Amino acid sequence: MLVPSALTDDALLACGVDPESRESPVERAEVAASVRERLERIARGEV
């Protein structure tokens, strides 16, 4: 389970996410999707 509020600002920026976007539920879902995409790219060796 990914908890966007637990991520540091640096971690969010590395995923291309504005750190302030973790405030609302809709934005948290977008943060989670962005982070998941980044992790998938790392797993494929693209990053």
Report what the structure shows.
With 47 residues, the protein is mostly helical. It has one domain (4-43). Helices cover 53% and strands 0% of the residues. The mean pLDDT is 78.
What can be said about this structure in brief?
It is built from two helices and no strands.
First-to-last CA distance: 22 Å
How much of the sequence lies in strands comes to under 5%
| Total of helices | 2
Helix percent band:
40-55%
Outline, from the CA principal axes? globular
Class computed from helices, strands and strand pairing: mainly alpha
Number of strands: 0
Order of helices and strands: HH
| Unreliable segments of 5+ consecutive residues | none
Q: Gyration radius, to the nearest Å?
A: 10 Å
Average predicted confidence as pLDDT: 78
Count of discrete domains: 1
